[in-house]
Amino acid sequence: MALQSAQKSLAAGICGAVLTNPADVIRNEMFKDDALSLPQTLKNLNKGGWKWMLRGVDKNLIAVAAPVATTIFLTDLFKDVFGNEIREGGEVAKRVTRRLTRVIKNDKEGA
């Protein structure tokens, strides 16, 4: 079960990173050039081809796929371990929620 969940999580993370990369490239170009127009985008696409749209995908795989895959995998794992406990709002679920809330709050304050 864990292996299947890990495979599903990794596939989802990779797909998300690869499919959203072209939008990230366009967004970054817009900020670099202050306002990237549609004709300029098409010119860049014609000049560089799909290679232009997929540049930086390697970094995006690390920055996006790893956290997404980890989140999906851990969510599946916690559902398997604490399934009934979480659905029924049991004491373990409340303690885990409080602890995670403190960790997130401390992380935000430290940033």
UniProtKB/TrEMBL annotation:
GO cellular component: membrane
Domain of life: Eukaryota
Keywords, alphabetical: Membrane, Transmembrane
Localization (cell): Membrane
Protein name: Uncharacterized protein
Organism: Triparma laevis f. inornata
